Amino acid sequence: MNEELIRRINELARKAKSPAGLTKEEAEEREALRKDYIRAFRENLRSQLERIDIQNEDGTVTSVKERHDQKYNKSELEA
Fold first, then answer.
1. Residue 74 has what pLDDT?
2. Beta-bridge mates of residue 55
3. Does residue 16 contact residue 22 with C-beta atoms inside 8 Å?
4. CB 34 within 8 A of CB 9
5. Per-residue pLDDT, 78
6. CA–CA gap between residue 26 and residue 12 (Å, rounded)
7. What Rg value do the Cα atoms of the chain yield, rounded?
8. Residue 48 belongs to what domain range?
9. pLDDT band at 27 (very low <50, low <70, confident <90, very high)
10. Which DSSP state fits 59?
11. Helix axes 64-78, 24-50, angle to 10 degrees
């Protein structure tokens, strides 16, 4: 997400709180920008989490992604 898009989201948020409010087009733009922001945030968070390694009590190292995949596959097999 670049700074200009964040600036536009904030601008629309301020305008929404003002007595003038948002036009229908601005409200739709704000919703689309919010969805893009949330998507980018989630992708960034997922990327960060996938790079984290966990050291187990026995000294082995497992990545968060591997642990998630193991848990997901296990619960999928049980269903």
1. 64
2. 61
3. yes
4. yes
5. 56
6. 7
7. 20
8. 3-78
9. very high
10. S
11. 100
Tokens in use for 16? 């929404």
Please provide the DSSP assignment of 6-31 as one string. Answer: HHHHHHHHHHHHSSS---HHHHHHHH
Name residue 79's amino acid.
Answer: A
Determine contact, residues 22/12, Cβ cutoff 8 Å: yes
Whole-angstrom distance, CA of residue 56 vs CA of residue 66: 13
Q: Cα-Cα-Cα-Cα dihedral of 43, 45, 46, 51, to 10°?
A: 130
Q: For residue 47, give both structure tokens.
A: 């990327």
55's enclosing H/E stretch is strand 53-55
Displacement of CA 18 from its chain's centroid (Å): 28
Overall number of domains in the chain? 1
pLDDT at 44 over 90: yes
Largest Cα–Cα distance of the chain, in whole Å? 62
Give CA–CA dist 30/22, Å, rounded.
9
Count of residues for the chain?
Answer: 79
